[in-house]
C-alpha cells in the first residue's frame, strides 16, 4: 500500500513510487533528487511538526508537509 | 582573455575554490538588472591570465530561482571558453545530476571533484578514471580548502578550452532519444545554438523553452500520444529525471569505494549530533533565542555579562580616564561589548579629528568663521555619524555570516517556517527582520537569501519598522521629555510600547501586502540542509571587506552630498545670504510649508508659530535618524528665545548643550510649541514608521527590483501617516478635551482596517473556490 510522505513517522523509510503535482514545484522536487526509485528516510520534524527533514540520495533535504503530500512511497521494513 | 565559468550546487565549495583561484583580483558586483551577486577575478598562474566567473550555485539548469536563470543564461549566451563543474565528492549522486545537464551544452566541460580531503578522511576512495570514461569529459580530484591540485585543474581546463566540444546526452531510452534527435535537427534547422540542450529541455517541458519555441511543441505533443512507458506512462519529465539519476547511481557505485557499504544507512556523525541539539523539539527554539540574544549582546551591550553591579560596588574608574579614549573598554556602568568598543573607538577618534580640525581652522581663519562650522559641525559630524555605525554593522554582519557559513541559518529557517508561513512568509524572512533591530542596512542586504521576489519586497518594506539602534535616541529624548513635562513616571513603558507598535505594524503590513499587491503563497520550501562545518576565516574576511567597501562608498557619495544640502538649506535664506537665526532659513520655511500635513498626527498646525521644528526634525531624520534629536539640540536656542520673547537665558542654553540625550532640549521644545503628549508620542511613532535613513534607502534601492523603490517610498509614507495618525487618535481618547473627536475617529480607523481585512480574505476565498 502506498503512503504519502507527510504521513510518515520519524524513523520510517520508504521507496518513492510516484511524485504528483505539476510545473515548477514538481520540477524542483525532481531536481533535488525526489524521483521515483529513490529511498527516503524521515529523519526529523521541526519543533512545530512542520516542515520535515528527510535523508535522500545521501544528503539532508527539508520540505513542508504541503509539498511532502505530493510524494507517494512504499514503506520499507527496517 | 579566456573565460572559465565555475558552476555547481550550492555548498559544494565553489566560493572557496573561487577565492583561492583569484585571490585579491576578485571583484564583486551585481548581475545586470538583478541583485544576485556576480563575482569575477583573474587566475594568473598559467601562461596567460584567465578570467574566472563564479556562477550562482544551482541544482539544475531548469529555471527555478532568478539565480538559476542567470547561471543557465551565462553558459548558453555568453559562451565561456570552459565550464568547470565543481561536484562535492561526499555527495556525488545529487551533484552529478547537474553535470548530466551541463554535458548537453556545446561547451568544454571539466569536472572538478571537490572535498576529496573529507572523502579520504572518511576512508573512502574515488576512481576518477571511471567517471571520466562514463562522462566523456576530464575529471580532476581537488580540495579547494587545502588548495590541492588546483593548478592541475586549471591546466586541464585550459587544454579542454582549446578544442570545441559537442553537447552529449546520457539519456538511454530509445524512443525518447529518437524524439530528441528529431527535435535537435529541427533546432539545427532554425540555426539555434546548443540544439541538443534546447531539444532536451523542450521535451522535458521546461518553462522557458516551451515559451521560446512554441512552434516545435506539436512535435513533442504528437510523440506523447503514441508513447507509453511501463512505469511512467507519458510522463516524460519523470522519465528523464529518473534516467539521469539511474545513470549516476549505476556509474557512481563503481567509481567510489565506500567505507560503509550501505549508502542510505543512517550514520551518526558529529554534524548529526550537533543537529540533534540545535533543532531539538523543545530546546531548538530556546537555543535559537539564546544565540540571538548573545549576538545582540556582543554587538550593542554597554554592560557585558551584566557586571554593572560589580563595577559599581568596587567603584571602578573608566579606562583611559582623562584621555579622548576615556571609557573605551569599560565605564563605571560595566564592560563594553566588542561592538561597542569598536563603535567607541571610531566615535572617539572621529571626535578627536573634528576637535583638531576645528582648532586648526580657528587658528587659521579666526574664531567663528562660517567655514569652520560648515566643515566641522556639519560635514564631518554628519559623515562620521554615518561611518560610526560601520563597526557595529560589521560585527552584526560577522555573527550572521558565521551562522550562515556553519549551516545553522538553514536550520533556523527550518525551525521557524511554520510560524512565518501564517503571514505569507518563509522561515528565512525572520533573520533580516530581527537584524532590523540592529540596523536596517545589513538587514536589507540579507534579504538576498529569500527566493521569492514578492516575499523579498515585503520583507524589505517592513524592516524599518523593527526599530533600529539609531531610532533609540528619539525614543529616549522624547519619552524623557514627555515624562518630565506631563508628569509620567514610566519612560520605559513608552519606549517598550513603541517597539511593540513597530512589530504590530510590521505584522499588519506584511499581511496586507502579501494578500494585495505582493500576493503569493509562501514560496515552496524545498531546501538542502548542509552539513555543519567550521566557518572559514578567509571567506568571512572577504565578505566583510566587500560590505565595508560598499558602505564607505555610499557614505562618501550620497550621504555626504545630502549632508551638504541640508547644511545649505538650514544656514541660508531665500535671498541666498547666510542667516543668523535658523528660523529665517530655507529649511524653516519648507518646514512651515509642510507643517499642516502633520495636523492629523498632532504635530502640525495646532502648534504655536515655532511648531515647524517638528517638521524640520522629521526631514533631517531622513538623512540619519540621529539628526532628529540633533536638530532639537541645535534649534533649542530658537525655542528658548521664543518662550522668553527674545531673551535667552544662557543657563538654560548651557543645560541644553550639556545634556547629550537631548531631554532638556525636548522639554524646551514641548513647552515652546505647546504640543500635547499625544502629539509627542505620535511624533515618535511617525519617525519609527516613516522612510528610513539615507543609508537604508540607498540599500533598499539597490536590493529592490527596478521600479519598485518608488512604491516602497510611498508605502513608508502611507504607513507612517496611518500609524502615527492612529496612535494620535487612540491616545486622544484618554483626554477630556479631545475625546469628542478622538473616539469616533479611532473607531472609524479600526473598522476600516477590519473591513479591509475581511474584504481581502473574502475575495481570496472566492478566488480559491472558483479555481
Key phrases:
heterodimer; A: 78 residues; SH3 type barrels; six-stranded antiparallel sheet; 2 helices; 17% helix; 42% strand; B: 771 residues; alpha/beta; Rossmann fold; 33 helices; elongated
Fold blueprint:
The complex is a heterodimer of chains A (78) and B (771).
Chain A: E1 2-4, E2 13-19, H1 23-31, E3 39-45, E4 52-56, E5 59-63, H2 65-68, E6 71-76
Chain B: E1 2-8, H1 14-22, E2 27-30, E3 37-43, E4 50-54, H2 66-78, E5 82-88, H3 92-102, E6 109-114, H4 116-121, E7 125-126, H5 128-135, E8 139-141, H6 150-161, H7 174-189, H8 195-203, H9 207-212, H10 217-226, H11 236-255, E9 256-257, H12 270-278, H13 283-300, H14 308-313, E10 330-331, E11 334-335, H15 338-365, H16 370-387, H17 390-406, H18 408-421, H19 430-435, H20 440-446, H21 453-462, H22 472-486, H23 491-515, E12 527-528, H24 537-571, H25 586-594, H26 612-620, H27 626-643, H28 650-658, H29 663-673, H30 677-689, H31 694-703, H32 709-732, H33 739-770
Parallel strand pairs in B: 1-4, 1-5, 5-6, 6-8
Antiparallel strand pairs in B: 2-3, 3-4, 7-9, 10-11
Helix pairs in contact in B: 3-11, 5-11, 7-8, 13-17, 15-16, 15-17, 16-24, 17-24, 20-31, 21-23, 22-23, 22-29, 22-30, 23-30, 25-26, 26-27, 27-28, 27-29, 30-32, 32-33
Write a short abstract of this structure.
Chain A is an alpha+beta fold and 78 residues long.
Description of the structure:
- The complex is a heterodimer of chains A (78) and B (771).
- With 78 residues, chain A is of the alpha+beta class.
- Chain A has two helices and six strands; from the N terminus they run E-E-H-E-E-E-H-E.
- Chain A has one domain: Roll (SH3 type barrels).
- A six-stranded antiparallel β-sheet of chain A has the order 1-6-2-3-4-5.
- In chain A, a hairpin with a 2-residue loop joins strand 4 and strand 5 (59-63).
- The longest helix of chain A has 9 residues, at 23-31.
- The model of chain A has no long low-confidence stretch (mean pLDDT 89).
- Chain B is an alpha/beta fold and 771 residues long.
- In chain B, strand 5 (82-88), helix 3 (92-102) and strand 6 form a beta-alpha-beta unit.
- The A-B interface holds A 13, 19, 23-39, 41, 43-51, 53, 55, 57-64, 67 and B 59-60, 62, 64, 90-91, 93-94, 97, 207, 231-232, 237-238, 241-242, 245-246, 263-264, 266, 279-282, 284-285, 410, 414-415, 417-419, 421, 524-531.
- Strand 5 (59-63) of chain A pairs antiparallel with strand 12 (527-528) of chain B, so a sheet runs across the interface.
Amino acid at each position: 500500500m502506498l503512503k504519502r510522505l507527510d504521513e510518515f513517522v520519524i524513523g520510517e523509510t520508504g521507496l518513492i513510487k510516484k511524485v504528483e503535482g505539476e510545473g515548477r514545484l514538481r520540477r524542483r522536487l525532481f531536481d533535488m533528487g525526489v524521483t521515483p526509485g529513490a529511498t527516503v528516510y524521515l529523519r526529523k520534524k521541526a519543533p512545530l511538526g512542520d516542515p520535515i527533514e528527510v535523508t535522500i540520495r545521501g544528503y539532508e533535504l527539508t520540505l513542508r508537509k504541503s509539498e511532502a503530500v505530493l510524494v507517494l512511497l512504499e514503506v520499507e521494513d527496517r | 582573455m579566456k573565460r572559465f565559468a565555475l558552476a555547481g550546487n550550492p555548498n559544494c565549495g565553489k566560493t572557496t575554490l573561487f577565492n583561492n583561484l583569484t585571490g585579491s583580483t576578485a571583484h564583486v558586483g551585481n548581475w545586470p538588472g538583478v541583485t544576485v551577486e556576480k563575482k569575477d577575478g583573474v587566475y594568473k598562474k598559467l601562461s596567460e591570465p584567465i578570467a574566472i566567473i563564479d556562477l550562482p550555485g544551482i541544482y539544475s539548469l531548469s529555471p527555478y530561482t532568478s539565480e538559476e536563470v542567470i547561471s543557465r543564461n551565462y553558459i548558453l549566451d555568453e559562451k565561456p571558453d570552459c565550464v568547470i563543474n565543481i561536484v562535492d565528492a561526499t555527495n556525488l549522486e545529487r551533484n552529478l545530476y547537474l553535470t548530466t545537464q551541463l554535458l548537453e551544452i556545446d561547451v568544454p566541460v571539466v569536472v572538478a571533484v571537490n572535498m576529496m580531503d573529507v572523502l579520504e578522511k572518511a576512508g573512502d576512495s574515488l576512481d576518477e578514471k571511471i567517471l571520466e570514461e562514463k562522462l566523456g569529459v576530464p575529471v580532476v580530484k581537488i580540495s579547494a580548502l587545502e588548495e590541492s591540485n588546483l593548478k592541475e585543474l586549471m591546466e586541464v581546463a585550459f587544454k579542454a578550452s582549446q578544442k570545441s566540444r559537442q553537447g552529449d546526452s546520457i539519456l538511454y531510452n530509445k524512443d525518447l532519444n529518437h524524439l530528441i534527435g528529431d527535435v535537435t535537427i529541427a533546432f539545427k534547422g532554425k540555426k539555434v545554438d546548443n540544439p541538443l540542450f534546447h531539444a532536451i529541455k523542450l521535451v522535458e517541458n521546461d518553462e522557458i523553452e516551451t515559451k521560446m519555441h512554441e512552434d516545435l511543441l506539436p512535435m513533442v505533443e504528437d510523440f506523447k500520444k503514441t508513447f507509453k512507458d511501463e512505469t511512467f506512462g507519458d510522463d516524460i519529465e519523470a522519465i528523464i529525471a529518473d534516467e539521469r539519476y539511474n545513470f549516476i547511481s549505476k556509474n557512481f557505485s563503481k567509481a567510489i569505494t565506500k567505507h560503509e557499504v550501505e549508502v542510505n544507512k543512517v550514520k551518526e556523525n558529529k554534524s548529526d549530533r550537533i543537529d540533534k541539539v540545535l533543532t531539538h523539539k523543545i530546546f531548538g527554539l530556546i537555543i535559537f533565542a539564546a544565540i540571538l540574544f548573545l549576538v545582540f549582546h556582543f554587538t550593542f551591550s554597554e554592560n557585558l555579562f551584566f557586571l554593572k553591579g560589580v563595577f559599581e560596588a568596587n567603584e571602578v574608574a573608566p579606562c583611559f580616564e582623562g584621555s579622548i579614549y576615556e571609557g573605551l573598554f569599560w565605564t563605571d556602568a560595566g564592560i563594553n561589548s566588542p561592538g561597542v568598543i569598536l563603535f567607541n573607538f571610531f566615535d572617539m577618534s572621529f571626535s578627536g579629528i573634528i576637535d583638531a580640525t576645528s582648532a586648526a581652522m580657528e587658528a587659521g581663519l579666526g574664531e567663528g568663521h562660517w567655514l569652520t562650522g560648515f566643515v566641522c559641525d556639519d560635514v564631518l559630524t554628519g559623515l562620521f555619524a554615518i561611518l560610526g555605525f560601520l563597526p557595529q554593522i560589521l560585527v552584526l554582519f560577522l555573527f550572521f555570516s558565521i551562522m550562515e557559513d556553519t549551516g545553522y541559518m538553514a536550520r533556523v529557517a527550518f525551525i521557524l517556517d511554520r510560524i512565518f508561513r501564517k503571514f505569507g512568509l518563509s522561515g528565512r524572512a525572520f533573520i533580516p527582520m530581527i537584524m532590523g533591530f540592529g540596523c536596517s542596512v545589513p538587514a536589507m542586504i540579507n534579504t538576498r537569501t529569500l527566493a521569492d521576489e514578492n516575499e523579498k519586497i515585503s520583507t524589505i518594506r517592513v524592516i524599518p519598522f523593527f526599530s533600529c539602534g539609531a531610532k533609540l535616541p528619539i525614543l529616549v529624548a522624547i519619552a524623557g521629555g514627555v515624562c518630565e513635562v506631563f508628569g509620567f513616571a514610566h519612560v520605559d513603558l513608552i519606549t517598550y510600547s513603541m517597539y511593540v507598535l513597530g512589530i504590530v505594524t510590521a505584522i499588519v503590513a506584511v499581511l496586507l501586502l502579501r494578500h494585495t499587491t505582493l500576493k503569493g503563497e509562501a514560496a515552496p520550501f524545498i531546501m538542502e540542509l548542509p552539513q555543519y562545518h567550521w566557518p572559514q576565516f578567509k571567506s568571512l574576511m572577504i565578505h566583510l571587506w566587500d560590505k565595508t567597501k560598499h558602505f564607505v562608498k555610499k557614505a562618501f557619495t550620497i550621504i555626504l552630498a545630502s549632508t551638504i544640502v541640508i547644511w545649505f538649506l538650514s544656514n541660508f535664506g531665500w535671498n541666498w545670504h547666510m542667516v543668523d537665526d535658523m528660523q529665517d532659513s530655507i529649511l524653516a520655511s519648507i518646514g512651515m510649508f509642510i507643517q499642516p500635513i502633520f495636523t492629523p498626527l498632532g504635530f502640525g498646525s495646532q502648534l504655536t508659530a515655532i511648531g515647524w521644528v517638528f517638521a524640520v526634525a522629521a526631514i533631517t531624520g531622513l538623512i540619519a535618524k540621529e539628526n532628529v534629536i540633533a536638530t532639537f539640540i541645535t534649534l533649542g536656542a530658537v525655542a528658548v528665545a521664543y518662550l522668553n520673547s527674545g531673551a535667552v537665558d544662557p543657563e538654560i542654553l548651557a543645560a541644553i548643550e550639556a545634556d547629550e540625550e537631548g531631554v532638556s532640549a525636548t522639554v524646551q521644545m514641548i513647552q515652546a510649541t505647546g504640543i500635547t503628549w499625544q502629539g509627542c508620542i505620535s511624533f515618535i511613532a511617525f519617525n519609527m514608521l516613516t522612510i528610513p535613513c539615507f543609508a537604508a534607502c540607498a540599500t533598499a534601492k539597490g536590493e529592490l527590483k527596478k521600479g519598485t523603490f518608488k512604491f516602497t517610498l510611498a508605502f513608508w509614507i502611507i504607513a507612517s501617516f496611518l500609524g502615527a495618525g492612529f496612535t494620535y487618535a487612540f491616545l486622544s481618547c484618554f483626554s477630556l478635551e479631545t475625546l469628542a473627536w478622538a473616539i469616533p475617529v479611532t473607531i472609524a480607523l479600526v473598522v476600516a482596517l477590519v473591513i479591509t481585512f475581511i474584504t481581502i480574505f473574502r475575495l481570496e476565498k472566492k478566488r480559491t473556490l472558483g479555481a
